[in-house]
């Protein structure tokens, strides 16, 4: 893919606010042929479309679809509408997600937290990608990109986010396996980028504290880094650098030794003050 998405069709989930909206702004600014916004918040979607310049902004057409990604059946229906009304996307950014910070999920969770967390964070990107991947593969001469926003939480364990960490670990395993399958089957025009950021100041992780050497990242910084990695077809992006260090140390150290290191760095206490954001509109932005 060139240095921009000019002329491409871009689809972003969780696009009505937060980082999803920033990705949409970037796509419009670079002259994408069309930008498709998915979110469950109809009012926020309408505001975003208006603030992006309406349905037509220069060369770019902006399309919005109200969809709750927890409803996996709705993904196929909405994807069919997109293929009919806009065309198959060249760039898919699986950005939407949620977090529920339960300290003891077996005491406080009756399925209301576990089920939607896994559906939205892990299954929805799989189902969405399955809908559009055949169209991306159909033209080997047209560059295509899939970006899966996972989390540093999927690379190591952390108290008070067991289900969230599990959902992101599943996303990482699937995303990188998909990358390898495409490479082995000679579909090199489709590149998959797996993104694993630490805490981002979107409000989703309000009250959480970044571990030592791991500052809370700004949405603008992360979006810029993700965008450049996506265009370059980079397989994986870990943010900040200390996430890669933690991943490496956890891989080589005995479990109890790593536990001690994690305690010193404050990894296991990073969610102690977690409050999160209100659950309304929770699907709208990017979730680290």
From TrEMBL:
It holds the Pfam family adh_short. The keyword Oxidoreductase applies. The lineage of its organism: Bacteria, Bacillati, Actinomycetota, Actinomycetes, Micrococcales. Keywords: Oxidoreductase. The keyword Acyltransferase does not apply. Belongs to the short-chain dehydrogenases/reductases (SDR) family. SUPFAM superfamilies: NAD(P)-binding Rossmann-fold domains (SSF51735). This is 3-oxoacyl-ACP reductase. CDD domains: 17beta-HSDXI-like_SDR_c.
């Amino acid at each position: 893919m060139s240095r921009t998405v000019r002329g491409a069709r871009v689809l972003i989930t969780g696009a009505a606010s937060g980082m999803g909206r920033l990705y949409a702004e970037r796509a419009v600014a670079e002259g994408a042929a069309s930008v498709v916004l998915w979110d469950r918040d109809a009012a926020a979607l309408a505001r975003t479309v208006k603030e992006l310049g309406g349905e037509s902004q220069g060369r770019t057409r902006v399309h919005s679809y109200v969809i709750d990604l927890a409803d996996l059946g709705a993904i196929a229906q909405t994807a069919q509408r997109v293929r009919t009304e806009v065309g198959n996307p060249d760039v898919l950014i699986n950005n939407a997600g949620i977090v529920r910070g339960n300290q003891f999920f077996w005491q406080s969770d009756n399925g209301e937290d576990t089920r939607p967390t896994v559906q939205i964070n892990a299954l929805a990107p799989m189902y969405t990608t399955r809908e559009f991947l055949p169209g991306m593969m159909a033209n080997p001469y047209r560059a295509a990109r899939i970006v899966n926003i996972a989390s540093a939480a999927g690379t190591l364990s952390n108290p008070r986010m067991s289900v969230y960490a599990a959902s992101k670990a599943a996303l990482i395993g699937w995303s990188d396996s998909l990358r390898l399958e495409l490479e082995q089957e000679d579909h090199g025009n489709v590149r998959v980028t797996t993104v694993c950021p630490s805490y981002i100041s979107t409000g989703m992780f309000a009250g959480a504290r970044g571990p030592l050497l791991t500052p809370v990242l700004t949405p603008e910084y992360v979006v810029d880094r993700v965008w450049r990695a996506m265009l370059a077809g980079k397989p994986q992006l870990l943010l900040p650098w200390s996430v890669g260090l933690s991943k490496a140390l956890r891989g080589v150290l005995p479990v109890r030794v790593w536990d001690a290191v994690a305690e010193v760095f404050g990894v296991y206490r990073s969610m102690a003050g977690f409050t999160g954001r209100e659950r309304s509109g929770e699907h709208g932005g990017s979730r680290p």
